[in-house]
Amino acid sequence: MNKWRDAWVIIKKELSTDRVYLIWGPLFMAYAGAMIGLMMYGPMKQGEYLNPVADFLMLSVLPLAGILFSRRSFNYIKDDTYTRMLFYYRTLPIPVETVMKSRFLHMIAAFLFNGVILFTAIRLIFDMNMNGLQYAVFILTWLGYAIAVNGIFIFFEFTTSGRTYMWFTILLVLLFGLTAAISAISGFGLTEHSMQMSKKHGMLSPLMWGTLLGGGLLLAGFSTLATRKLSRRSLRG
């Protein structure tokens, strides 16, 4: 319990001293949500498959909703801010487990803050012919996916340099693009399928429960690996 309390102290300090996220987060999420909504609206109204760009945006943007757009996030390549932060916490000293728990709280706060803006923007552009409960299931389905990817983000944040983290994100974006392309070629739209499952099954959607369970397990697994590796990682230079 003390570690969670200490983690809350860390995240409160971060949120109060670096408020850039209050500007860039809403701007980016509102814009991304509007773009996703527009990519859904046209094809669905014409009875066609969803634009693969919608799949690419969902795959790319949803994980970013778990990150607050702070100065540290913007400067991670130039100044290797994540490594410097971890080195600072080690010198205090703050246990690795507490730092990890603060990152969990960071992710939760980000999903609540960014997610509300993102999904509200999508809903305002295109309601997907869903009622409130069905849309909540759709959100939770993609939230499970986003949690899984954030587990990978956390692992690289804690265990690699800023430059390595940059190359990983570039590779991930390319993978998202490839996935969206394969989805379009096969005629199996990821976003469209998640919409159909949400409408058909509601809270009993196996896709929703599968992504939430899988996302939780991947987050736990990557976080455990990151904690072990960080305990042995040299943070100097």
Automatic annotation (TrEMBL):
Q: Does the keyword Mitochondrion apply?
A: no
Residue ranges crossing the lipid bilayer per the database entry? 21-43, 49-69, 104-126, 132-156, 165-187, 207-226
Q: Does the keyword Transmembrane apply?
A: yes
Q: Which UniProt keywords apply?
A: Membrane, Transmembrane, Transmembrane helix
Q: What is this protein called?
A: ABC-2 transporter permease
In its UniProt entry, the species of origin is given as: Paenibacillus apis
